Amino acid sequence: MKPNTRHVVRLVLLTAAFLAYPAPMFSQQHPSASRDHGAADLVIVNANAWTVDPALPRAEAMAIIGDRIAAVGSDAEVRSWIGPHTRTIDAHGKTVLPGFVDAHVHFSDGGFSLSSVKLKGAATPQEFTRRIGEFAKTLPKEEWILNGDWDNQEWGGELPARTWIDSVTPNNPVFVERYDGHMALANSLAVKLAHVTKDTAEPAGGEIVRDAQGEPTGIFKDAAQELVYRAIPDPTNDQHDRAVSAALAEARRFGVTSLDDISSFADVRSYQRLLARGQLTSRIYCITSMPQWQKLADAGILQGFGNDWIRMGAVKGFSDGSLGSETAYFFDGYIDNPSYAGLMNEMMFPLGHMDEMALGSDRAGLQLVIHAIGDRANATVLGICDKVEHEDGPRDRRIRIEHAQHVRPQDFAEFARLHVIASMQPYHAIDDGRWAEKLIGHERAKTTYACRSMLNHGVKLAFGTDWTVAPLNPFLGLYAAVTRATLDGKNPGGWIPNEKITLPQAIEAYTMGSAYAEFSEKQKSSLIVGKFADVVVLDQDLFAIPAEEIKDVNVLHTIVAGKIVYTALMTR
Question: Which of 84, 246, 270, 567 is 20 to 30 Å from the Cα of 363, by its Cα?
């Protein structure tokens, strides 16, 4: 039930700008507020709430009725909402935030990965082989070994080969992905089941890595991965639902109350089944494949179609690959191979096909969401955005470039001019920052993962993780955006430190910025009366700890639609 706003306690901020933190709280009761109101269902008191509301950045307490925020203000004011049946959470001075909105996840993949072989962190080829072999022993014969999320940079950059794992997986086909999803390793059994041979033609927009004799090594890059994926049986509905349920548990644990998912139609059906059973605990914005845009158009689906829990109407295209797989598309070549500048996604771009799909999608009322990593890929997509704007006219279309990872200095202004949203994943900077300059050099790295430059040019930022490429934990993303301290410990002061942003800016990008990117900023992502009661209570005062400790913060309570869906086990 949405409360009558006449019966709402609101505070007016008397001092302290939104970005000035930590700030003392000066407040007063709103003149139009009345204490003639009923009891709340849930009240949070004794909090250091960061509201992401410029009119009232800080608050001590809040009240919730049904699935909506009913009051935000001082402890004394909000305690008047406590009745005999009100549940009360004492935050003990810790930070309370709007629920995080992860702007880019592969959610069911993340769920499946939780029960898959774990290859991230395998620091040697021998450890890589051992983990796969041990996992294979737990499976019945003929069951596929998938996911994995390996990183060849852990052992110096050498690509793995099927010969590494054939002896430990004689009875199980294997197709394990690099953590960025842009290349994967198949064992010989999987290569055989996929009918890939020495004579198999190279697919457009992909690469079958071959040895000196022309035989496949087992590595398939970008579009070539489809040669193997088509041989893998689809999961059953029950398997799919169990994977999504596992992913939802992860989201609850990390305070991710909404997410923008790169969804298959099977994913959308799974979300609907879970919603019908009352088991959906994150709001999901489903971003489906751009080549499928006509199906959405024919069904009459526009951007925002759906309900409070599941919405769709955005379509995703790919312009290139990834930096780690050396398939990101640049103007200049890679350091180790100057004549090679990456792969433009040939499934999208031949004969202007991406232009056609983008224009068709836009005219059908769908939101454009396009992956671009390399600087040439980003420039090319900005050109498509310009063409869409020119041919279809101005409107609030909120085109998004996913990753916006390597951008030429002159293109930040183009992002701003075209009102393109930069949907970025700050954790990638502290991960890839360990080795990015080895691939593209220092000069190009200066405008890599450039959050500060985006904000300085007035570009809207939306933050996410790209889970499973990065962990779903948003505190790692906040830490990365604020410190840019690479995972190898070699840049404690920050890699390209001038691209750091402030903690309030990072929180805003992870809440209101991501909500804006999916057209839902009026319904959620700030602690304002009348918005969805999607809230997280933390175990620390986020604004009182050193920046390097942000990564260690945990969620005590996750609240979605006014219901507590996660409470941490207390150890003290």
Answer: 270
Distance separating alpha carbons of residues 451 and 164, to the nearest angstrom = 39
Look at the block and give the residue holding tokens 């593209």. 440
Q: Which candidate, 223, 159, 151, 187, places its Cα nearest to that of 428?
A: 151
Whole-number pLDDT of residue 182: 87
The rounded distance, in Å, linking the Cα atoms of 407 and 399 is: 17
Structure tokens of 29? 């009761």
Q: Write the DSSP symbol of residue 39.
A: -
Provide the 10 A C-beta neighbour count for residue 409: 11
CA dihedral angle for residue 81, residue 82, residue 85, residue 91, rounded to 10 degrees = 120
Place of tokens 């840049």: 491
Is residue 524 within 8 Å of residue 258, measured between CB atoms? yes
Q: Give whole-number Cα distances, 491 to 23, 157, 409, 446, in Å.
A: 30, 20, 23, 14
Q: Give how far Cα 86 sits from Cα of 90, 92, 560, Å.
A: 13, 18, 17
Domains 1-99+525-572 and 111-229 in one fold: no
CATH fold for domain 1-99+525-572: Urease, subunit C; domain 1 (2.30.40)
- pLDDT score of 36: 66
Tell me what pLDDT residue 35 has. Answer: 54
Of the chain, the end-to-end C-alpha distance in Å amounts to: 36
The structure tokens listed for 523 are 């319904």
Domain ranges for the chain, please list them: 1-99+525-572, 111-229
Structural contact between residues 531 and 253, judged by C-beta atoms closer than 8 angstroms: no
**What is the CB neighbour count within 10 angstroms for residue 121?**
11
pLDDT score, position 205: 82
Note the CATH number of domain 111-229: 3.10.310.70
Give the Cα separation of 446 and 316 in Å (integer).
27
Residue ranges in the chain whose pLDDT is less than 50: 1-34, 571-572
Per DSSP, the residues of 234-247 read: PPPHHHHHHHHHHH
Residues with Cβ within 8 Å of 343's Cβ and at least 6 positions away in sequence, in order, are 205, 206, 207, 221, 222, 320, 321, 327, 329
Name the DSSP letter for residue 419.
Answer: T
Dihedral sign (CA 44, 46, 52, 56): positive
Quote the Cα angle for 180-186-190, to 5°.
140
Calculate ∠ Cα 419-422-428, nearest 5°: 170
For 172-270, where are the E strands, in sequence order?
174-178, 183-186, 206-210, 216-222, 256-262
- Predicted model pTM: 0.85
Q: How many residues does the chain have?
A: 572
Distance in angstroms (rounded) separating the CA atoms of residues 537 and 231: 45
Report DSSP state, residue 6: G
447 bridge partner residues: none
Helix (H, G, I), strand (E, B) or coil at 226: helix
Amino acid identity, residue 337? Answer: N
